Amino acid sequence: MPKFPVAAREALGDAQLRHNLAHATGTIRGKRLRLIDEVNASTPEGTAWEELRLAGAAVKERALLSLGDQLEQLEANLVANGATVHWARDAAEANAIVARVAKAHDVDEVVKVKSMVTQEIDLNEALEAEGIAAWETDLAELIVQLGGDLPSHILVPAIHRNRAEIRDIFLRRMGETGRPAPADLTDDPAILAGAAREHLREKFLRARMAVSGANFAIADTGTLVVVESEGNGRMCLTLPDVLVSVVGIEKVVPTWTELDPLLRLLPRSSTGERMNPYTSTWTGVTPGDGPQEVHVVLLDNGRTRALADETGRQALRCIRCSACLNVCPVYERTGGHAYGSVYPGPIGAILNPLLKGVGHDEQVDSLPYASSLCGACFEACPVRIDIPSVLVDQRAQVVDARRGGRPSGEELAMRAGAAALSDARRLALGERFAGVGIRLARRLPGLPGLRGWTSARDLPDPPTESFRAWWKRTDGGRRPDPTGEQR
Q1: Which partner for 322 in 34, 51, 155, 396 could form a disulfide, CB atoms 3.0-4.6 Å apart?
Q2: pLDDT digits over 400-438, tens only?
Q3: Which of 8, 28, 14, 47 has the alpha carbon at shortest distance from 322?
């Protein structure tokens, strides 16, 4: 992927994309705000939502500050309940574990619950390389998969597609992987959902293994939790004989009681609903009910790196609600693909550099700058992640990581500014020529280095006299100014 400014410039030229994004994010924002007003109306002070945010942030913070202990307790309870626990340091280890389980059961296809973490590790591609087909069963993820596309939103991966585009994808691609779409398929949402349902049902009934993530993992009982809106997750979590759940280590919650505020925050912040239509919980293996072999892969993949960052570790509180995307003016105009990662928007702009580290990849290093720092993301975040502060801190880390190499134009300009401002004589000399430079820039706005500024801004008229010259001429204001001007 190119750096964010390059990818964003291309996305800005897609009028249909901007229309799709504005419509979808605006709709979700409106639903969310109505529910927040409803929560606030439940108390005379009108502060119930903020109190809920504080409670959710405290739960996640407590879990992170005692993460080692919580994970050990989670593992012990999972094992006690019949699950097999695997630890994966990175994507390669996690993918290898899932493939090994599939091969042990002679499985050549798996059905999947919508999972950000399996997209993060490119599990589908890794399984395909092993001869195992991974079928996405979430409607939006199915659209993305059939279209040979990439997700562009955490909650609504196909937010960049409209109904007509989805109809065309279903007609062209469904028959290649299973039951084809009806020849008379229309772009009515209910008809499209019906075609997806028929296409997926044969996969649900045939699959012997499923792969999921987890929204939360409760340490004191060894319970995994998935919330979703379509019922596909429930099908994947109950029908197959074998279930493999890939879970980021930051998803741990200490107790069931502490899960409560998170389950109230997540649906209101993500889908604009009081609760999700489907909340599935499972605790290991239950004889005769559901999968009879359960594997849990606890994944690091850079999370301990993020945990060690005192400013950035708060990003691990994220409950993947996507509220920050829906209020971000940058995301609304560029979409998720411009971020070059499965985690787009404001949270992706901080989470990707935290997980991968800075100073190694120009695309990753460009993400902390993919923001106007307006602060809307912090106001929307249900667990109070101060994204603007983390962005500023990561910008400093990017600059520090790139010191010592070939200096950029910005760095050279800063060096010149530091040299001028650190010496009164150099500053005085620079002031003499500042007016000349401004006049030249106004006459030649297309000069290299100026084009990025002057294409969107007007340069002010240079002053006829510098403050230093005025001070000298009037003896610091003690002599009358013959021009009569107030300075």
Answers
A1: 155
A2: 998 877 777 777 888 888 998 898 888 888 877 777 777
A3: 28
pLDDT at 487: 46
Q: Where are the alpha helices (DSSP H) in 41-159?
A: 48-65, 67-80, 91-104, 116-120, 123-129, 139-146
Bridge partners of residue 278, in order along the sequence: 228
CA angle 321, 145, 316 (to 5 degrees): 25
Do 89 and 300 touch, CB atoms closer than 8 A? yes
Give percent of the chain above pLDDT 70. 95
Residue 208: HSE in the Cβ half-sphere, 13 Å Cα cutoff: 9
Q: Which residue's structure tokens are 């045939």?
A: 206
List, in order, residues 6 or more apart from 311 with CB less than 8 Å away.
389, 390, 393
Structure-block tokens of residue 435: 């007016």
Structure-token pair, residue 395: 């910008």
- Of 284, 296, 242, give the one whose Cα is nearest residue 102: 242
Helix, strand, coil percent values for the chain (each to nearest 5) = 55, 10, 35
Query: 430: burial class by Cβ within 10 Å (0-12, 13-18, 19+)?
Result: middle
Distances (CA, A) of 242 to 104, 201, 460: 11, 18, 68
Rounded CA-CA distance 290/242 in Å is 9
Phi/psi of residue 278, nearest 5 degrees: -130, 120
pLDDT at residue 76, rounded to an integer: 98
Residues ≥6 apart with Cβ < 8 Å to 181 = 170, 171, 174, 175, 195, 199
Fold exhibited by the domain 47-301? Rossmann fold (3.40.50)
pLDDT < 70 positions in the chain: 441-456, 481-487
What pTM was computed for the model? Answer: 0.87
Tell which residue, 292, 221, 209, has the closest CA to residue 254: 221
CA neighbor of 214 nearest in space, from 241, 256, 249, 239: 249
Burial class of residue 68 in the structure, from the number of CB atoms within 10 Å of its CB (0-12 exposed, 13-18 middle, 19+ buried): exposed
Domain coordinates in residue numbering, the chain: 47-301, 409-474
Nearest 5°: phi and psi at 87?
A: -110, 130
Place of tokens 């430079």: 437
Contact between 292 and 241 under an 8 Å Cβ cutoff? The reply is: yes
Q: What is the dihedral of CA 315, 319, 320, 325, to 10 degrees?
A: -60
